[in-house]
Amino acid sequence: MTPLILVLNGPNLNMLGTREPAQYGYETLADLGQHCADTANAHGLEVEFRQTNHEGELIDWIHAARNRCAGIVINPGAWTHTSVAIRDALVASEVPVIEVHLSNVHKREPFRHVSFVSSIAVGVICGLGSHGYRMAISYFAELLKERAA
Length: 149
Ligand code: DQA
Prior knowledge:
With about 150 residues, this protein is α/β, with parallel strands linked by helices. It has helices spanning about 20-25, 30-40, 55-65, 85-95, 130-149; strands at about 5-10, 45-50, 70-75, 95-100, 125. 1,3,4-trihydroxy-5-OXO-cyclohexanecarboxylic acid binds near residues 75, 77, 101, 105 and 112. One of its GO terms (biological process) is chorismate biosynthetic process.
């Protein structure tokens, strides 16, 4: 069976393209989804790309990933800095997680320097725009290849 990578996006990321372009650039969420699909295809992986503005919905998606997904790439948006519930859901899923941010959160306001997710993630990528998502998917692809070898 083709391994599935779940790419999850939190609140306000549906506004990409028009939202604070100085921070997030001009690519839309659909562009990001296309980049992820292209990268996954190139590695023979399947990808599901989702966004929600509702925290409970994101938590339900994370729970459903248990025993179903080979990896989660997540940009929790502002919930990164606020949500113990999302962190707990990720731990409960027992799926390896890579945290991604489009902007370099460490260059920004101090409240963005705190993440509830980073310490339970395999790794964190920030500041590289949509490249971060692609790199995270490629990393999972390499890891799966190594495990299969
Ligand atoms: C973000 C950074 C967060 O601090 C912010 O709340 C977002 C986007 C990023 O991708 O750079 O919504 O996660």
